[in-house]
Amino acid sequence: MIAAALxxxxxxxxxxxxxxxxxxxxxxxxVPGDPVxxxxxxxxxxxxxxxxxxxxxxxxxxxxxAGLHLPVFxxxxxxxxxxxxxxxxxxxxxxxxVKQLSLKSGQPQKVWQxxxxxxxxxxxxxxxKNPKALLxxxxxxxxxxxxxxxxxxQLLSFQMNSDDTKSLIxxxxxxxxxxxxxDKTWLQFFPVLSYNGKQNRFHQWLFGTESQEGxxxxxxxxxLRQGRPVTLLIREAFGIxxxxxxxxxxxxxxxxxxxxxxxxxxxxxxxxxxxxxLLLMLFATPAYWLGILMLTFLCSPEFLNxxxxxxxxxxxxEDISIIHKTLIVSRHLILPVTCWSIGGVAFLSxxxxxxxxxxxGLPFYMAARARGISNRKLIKNHLFPLAALxxxxxxxxxxxxxxxxxxxxxxxxxxxxxxxxxxxSFHVRDFPVVIGVLLVTGVFAYGATxxxxxxxxxxxxxxxKRKMV
Amino acid sequence: MIIKSIKSFRAGQRFLALKILLFIGIAAPLISxxxxxxxxxxxxxxxxxxxESIPHDLKIKNLDRNSEVNWYLSPPIAFSPNELDVESIGLxxxxxxxxxxxxxxxxxxxxxxxxxxxxxxxxxxxxxxLIGLMAMLIALTIGILLGATSGYWNFQNMxxxxxxxxxxxxxxxxxxxxxxxxxxLESVNFLWIFCAVxxxxxxxxxxxxxxxxxxxxxxxxxxxxxxxxxxSPDHWGIAMINYTTALPGYFVLLAxxxxxxxxxxxxxxxxxxxxMWPDIARLTRSAVILAKNEQYHEAAEGLGYSNARIIxxxxxxxxxxxxxxxxxxxxxxxxxxxxxxxxxxxxxxEMISWGSMLSLAKDYPELWWLSVFPGAALxxxxxxxxxxxxxxEKAGD
Lengths: 469, 397
Fold this sequence. Notes:
- The complex is a heterodimer of chains A (469) and B (397).
- Chain A is an all-alpha fold.
- Chain A has 21 helices and 2 strands.
- Chain A has helices at residues 2-11, 14-29, 35-39, 50-55, 57-66, 92-105, 108-128, 131-142, 146-159, 163-181, 201-207, 230-265, 269-284, 287-298, 322-360, 363-370, 375-387, 389-393, 395-413, 418-427, 431-459; strands at residues 75-79, 191-195.
- The longest helix of chain A has 39 residues, at 322-360.
- Chain A is elongated and about 110 Å long.
- Chain A starts with a helix and ends in a 10-residue tail after the last helix.
- Chain B has helices spanning 2-12, 16-26, 28-31, 60-63, 117-152, 162-185, 190-218, 221-224, 233-245, 249-259, 264-292, 295-302, 307-319, 321-325, 327-343, 354-363, 369-396; strands at residues 38-41, 44-46, 69-73, 95-96, 105-106, 158-161, 228-231.
- With 397 residues, chain B is mainly alpha-helical.
- In chain B, the strands form 3 sheets. A 3-stranded antiparallel β-sheet of chain B has the order 2-1-3, with no helix packed on it.
- Chain B is elongated.
- Chain B is built from 17 helices and 7 strands.
- The interface between A and B is large, with 68 and 52 residues.
């Protein structure tokens, strides 16, 4: 019975992971700029030769590797005036021009036919090695004004002399004239729905192809800046973040639970008010400001120089005693971990305090007190199990907050963990790393939340029944 | 009676902090400016503060040397936030510039470029409050709609007929098509398209549900099950709330902003709102469920009112209270998130914000007032919103 419920709970997180993957994929898709150019090494080539890069075999191959010759998603909605295989055109400006042309004319088949005739013309021009004609050809392909394009064709026909190119030009002009004369713009308000099957970019990105592993199998692509696999970068960074995050979460619980119970025991009303106010203030304090204050006043030579500014646990010497090593490590860790957990401590101790105060008014507690049970046993057996419940159910929001706090803390204290990796790759626009980190941290937070959910399910029998509110 | 009046006064002061912050935000140019409010010369009075740009000798720091001016009215802080001054770089709090006149004192010091910290604080308040309120407005819209739907159909499945489903799908496809066409034409702002689509989708959905209601009422009972499917909005509503809560917020923010390169204030508020609706939705959901047990709901159902009318006219007016009360926490969190984004340099550079002031503090640790005062203002603002929420909660009990 319990096992079935547990399995059901775990299965409930699968749509979440799929949605997260969808978010990551579409963020990756909407990256500004040409994704193929980012993959290719074009550092030596100048901007003026961009047209020739797009036509080169190298570009076509890179485009195919990136899967850009495929549709984006399983289903595809397009206005009826857009050609179905628009994504097959490699040159982004040509693609845009064809799109605009077919939107204006409402003749997608004719425009598509014209583009293919125009491409055949390019082969003929390239065969004759006529650079001026090639320039005119490019001008035509980039334009979306049929009138101008027809004029350009006239110029082109002066440049080319052989008969087969003349006939190619004539057929292209004929198609273009037909495009120019028709005006079916109203067609754009009618959508066409097409199903692409498994041959689409999302499917290949998620599940992989024969030659490449997918995201599900743990392949997140390569960093644009460093050229190393994203998985490797993330694994290195996670190894640094994970112990810190666990330490911060444990510290949160070990401080806030006793503190909340202690506050419920307090008889001094004004001290209690002051303590609650202090906790609320700590909760309102942004962790990064606390970090800056610590760095300004505790780590700088102007004020107190107690702690090291930079996090450098890699350089701890091997040949020193364990006590000395622990001292060095704790000297590095004490500020980040404190800063990381302080918001959680404030929040959780107030919650625990409220619950404990509420529990103290319940009849079973008063009965236990009337029986003369010692204070210690009273807290241990009667107060604590109920007062700790919010701490358990709040884990679902505390753990994701702690994970996302990694960005703040690691940035301030320069810890080379996952948050720092995210920030760095954000600044240099290294999109595969950004999306990879998003997916990994998201799945990690989902897993932790599901785990806390399961623990609550096992410990508190009341959550097993479906509640009304 | 006295106690009662004191209590009512204190109850009225819950929003005092909010009022003060809003006042500072709206009236920032009147509070801190390097143009005088009012100048009296022999020709008469003039209001330089209304002018876009004024001659150099009419600025406050030069007015004392200007013999034409009889007297002038200065704003409380006589500096502009972006006014650079090479002669007063890195001044301590309470130190003055050239003359020791009251309006020439830098109350909270200056930064490494000689800009007055107090003036920047005033303008930063404007940004923070604006973004906090806008983000919460978006979160409130999403959260209340989703929470109300989820709570109304809790333990009860929504039944939709196949014609209605077909109609909805077609409508969605047509709407998306319109979106795509507008996007291709590249003439309309994306945010406006989004708003237009959402509004038209809501209107469309209303008519569809109404048609669906009549369709199902006219069909014979034994066909009803075959002609419709049932699904549980509550199940998926709770799932969406859980999924969004469990996302690591700053990672999602950074990932979205890495793609959206120039978001501006509206964009940042929009993304923050998209991440902050779950709490509001959860509170609204449980309040709607409680309101459903009341008798007026039963009466409304007995009168045969439509679902939309029951939700919007009967249940929600009684169920938005918890969500509105918790708004203070949300605004506080949004302000903290916004200041962090400015701190790491995501926000537009010309936007003056407490976060961008704090990012200077990291580079100049010897100018301690750069880190202390903006941070204190931040904590105070967030705390004021939190106190507002807690006092409203207490009043509710």
